[in-house]
Amino acid sequence: MFGIPGKQAVTLTDTAAAQVRALMSDSGGRVKGLKIGVKKGGCAGMEYTMEYAEALSAHDEVIEQDGARVIIAPMAQMFLFGTEIDYRTSLLESGFVFNNPNVSESCGCGESVSFKVSPDAA
Fold first, then answer.
1. Residue 33: left if φ>0, alpha if ψ -120 to 50, beta else—which one?
2. Using one digit for the tens of pLDDT, what is the confidence trace for 8-65?
3. Any bridge partners for residue 63, and if so which?
4. Phi then psi for 65, rounded to 5 degrees?
5. What distance in Å separates the CA atoms of residue 17 and residue 21, rounded to the nearest whole number?
6. Predicted TM-score (pTM) of this structure
7. How confident is the model at residue 122, as a pLDDT?
8. DSSP character for 4?
9. DSSP-derived pairing of the beta strands 83-89 and 10-12
10. Between the CA of residue 106 and those of 2, 41, 91, what are the distances in Å?
11. CB–CB of 1/58 below 8 Å?
């Protein structure tokens, strides 16, 4: 929808792809992929969303990489274009990390972000 022909909207690191594959295989085939999006919320204005996708809709962007499938909700495509998704594990936490070039700032806890506004959007 907002993509550049021949270029994926998002990419996954090897670690993230392995985690998405594991989540998909744990579902016994019920889950078609991991759906990501954005919604209003948090102290910086927007939050990423992630949920299991059991079905695809007509306007979803489907990214397949190394057997992992990520589905991007239509409203989120313009905010996520160019994002690299990683999966990190530390002593206290583990989770997906979005390395998004479209983010202008994030809150202190890292749970919410705000996006760059194009000068042409005004």
1. left
2. 889 999 999 999 999 988 877 788 899 999 888 777 678 889 999 998 888 899 999 9
3. 70
4. -145, 120
5. 6
6. 0.79
7. 44
8. B
9. parallel
10. 23, 12, 23
11. no
